[in-house]
Structures are given as C-alpha cells and as structure tokens.
Design goal:
single chain; about 120 residues; mainly beta; seven-stranded mixed sheet; four-stranded antiparallel sheet; globular
C-alpha cells in the first residue's frame, strides 16, 4: 500500500484543517487506517484510527472532541478533520495502514506509513 498525505499548512489557533491520505496498491478497504504525529523533539504519537469498515473509531485523549477521522473506501482515502486547533497540535502528521485493529489501537508499528504533512498552528 502506498500512502500519500496532504492538506497540512499554517493555521491560527482555533482554526481548522482537513488532512487527506490517498492510498493505492492493495485493497484499501481491508486496512485499518490511522493518523500519527510527531512534534519537534518528541516521539511520534498516535492520534486516531478507523476500522476498515468505518464502523469504529478510536482517538488519543488529545484528539477527542476536536478531531474526526473518516474514510471513503470508494475513493481509497482517509481524512482527519481537525477543529479548534492549538499550538501544541503543531507537528508532522503521518497516515498509516495496518491489517490489525488491535495493533493500530495499541499504537503498534503499522504495516505501512505515508510521508508526513506539516501542520503548524500559530498562537
């Protein structure tokens, strides 16, 4: 699976961004999809994941109530809608794909990574 993330940018605190991750290659609908992020000087951390069917989602505490993950299996794309952004959300955001719902929810190493997209939130 090849993953291509896009949609990052510079936004003021309180603003919104929508990230997209387009997948190609193997059957997208068979994969659990997730978003991770890495801030400067910090380790990469889990943000959100969505089941292959789209029926279940799971979020890091930092994302709950502000971020929404969704997917369109017909378009082979997963999205991350980010609202009420804070300066501490500044990071490189990565999409990932994995065959295991358990693995993604527990932040185990995904099978596939996309390249990152930079999100910068100014105060």
């Amino acid at each position: 699976v090849q993953l291509q993330a896009s949609g990052g940018g510079l936004v003021q605190a309180g603003g919104s961004l929508r990230l997209s991750c387009a997948a190609s290659g193997r059957t997208f609908s068979r994969y659990v999809m997730g978003w991770f992020r890495q801030a400067p000087g910090k380790e990469r951390e889990f943000v959100a994941t969505i089941h292959w069917s789209g029926s279940s989602t799971y979020y890091a505490d930092s994302a709950k109530g502000r971020f929404t993950i969704s997917r369109d299996n017909a378009k082979n794309t997963v999205y991350l809608q980010m609202n009420s952004l804070k300066p501490e959300d500044t990071a490189v955001y990565y999409c990932a794909a994995d065959s295991s719902w358990y693995g993604m929810r527990n932040s185990l190493e995904p099978d596939y990574w996309g390249q990152g997209t930079q999100v910068t939130v100014s105060s």
